[in-house]
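Researcher: We plan to redesign the surface later, but first we want a full-length starting point. Tokens attached.
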């Protein structure tokens, strides 16, 4: 499997200008809509994979296929990014936990 999708997402996360607070507050409405859409989709995935207790923030990929892993170089780069943004969040990237279930799409 290619590392390209993981690298693409990581590059997009790193490209976000987090220093522009004015722009961030000018887009509060669209940010709220994006969050609402995330919560809706996460709820569908949680229901489809029996993860309602972990909703809204859970490892969807782990529930779909516990064998999915992030390439080590991408993981290390992501940890550094998270340490800069939210040091406590980086502690959650300590590896995969086995999860049962079968892969299926949400309704």
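Model: Full-length starting sequence:
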């Amino acid at each position: 499997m290619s590392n390209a999708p993981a690298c693409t997402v990581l590059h997009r996360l790193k490209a976000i200008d987090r220093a522009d607070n004015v722009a961030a507050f000018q887009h509060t409405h669209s940010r709220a809509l994006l969050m609402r859409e995330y919560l809706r989709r996460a709820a569908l995935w949680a229901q489809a994979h029996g993860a309602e207790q972990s909703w809204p923030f859970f490892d969807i990929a782990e529930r779909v296929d516990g064998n999915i892993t992030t390439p080590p170089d991408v993981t290390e780069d992501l940890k550094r990014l998270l340490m800069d943004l939210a040091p406590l969040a980086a502690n959650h990237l300590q590896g995969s936990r086995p999860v049962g279930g079968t892969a299926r799409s949400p309704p």
